[in-house]
């Protein structure tokens, strides 16, 4: 897991690359240099505590913690893992809002309710266990959002729309969202937040001792801490989780 912050990025991918480079470089400076990749465990927790905005109990009521979770692998256990790690890193017992971005599909494949249901069920369980207050979706058209809404036990509270592919909110989506009190938000995230090659490049630049091709991204979590009364972002950052393939 990597925790870091970055300002003024030129792209989301570059922002994450810079976070990975800075966090790994700082973390590796605190440990004895590994003599080979096998010296490292399959999972490395290299968070930098001073780079993480832990929230004190006194200020919790004044802040909203919003998260967007990008799933890179099909393993659904990563959803609970990501939420648990975010709560731990930010010192909160519950996230106020989580929007999920499922793994990117090939261009010729359309998103379906069947694809969304397993991940949504995981999120519903986390709402029921009070780890998340509200859950939202990303890039669903009116038909798919309606299907999810009708099927779900915990209804989506929001749906993000990428304005790169849709300059104006579709009227049918706007009408449905208004009728069922679903907030429509905009975003400019690419389908793939960072490629495997870009991630491995950032890792390679941070240390020469890792066989970067052995590491694969499992999930990326982007958080924002918002001051409710002023509507401004107090802090933002990423948690990135990658796992090493069996050697």
Automatic annotation (TrEMBL):
Pathway: Sulfur metabolism; glutathione biosynthesis; glutathione from L-cysteine and L-glutamate: step 1/2. It comes from the Eukaryota. GO terms for cellular component: glutamate-cysteine ligase complex. InterPro entries: Gclm, NAD(P)_OxRdtase_dom_sf, NADP_OxRdtase_dom. Keywords: Acetylation, Glutathione biosynthesis. The keyword ATP-binding does not apply. Belongs to the aldo/keto reductase family. Glutamate--cysteine ligase light chain subfamily. Heterodimer of a catalytic heavy chain and a regulatory light chain. This is Glutamate--cysteine ligase regulatory subunit. It comes from Oncorhynchus tshawytscha (Chinook salmon). The lineage of its organism: Eukaryota, Metazoa, Chordata, Craniata, Vertebrata.
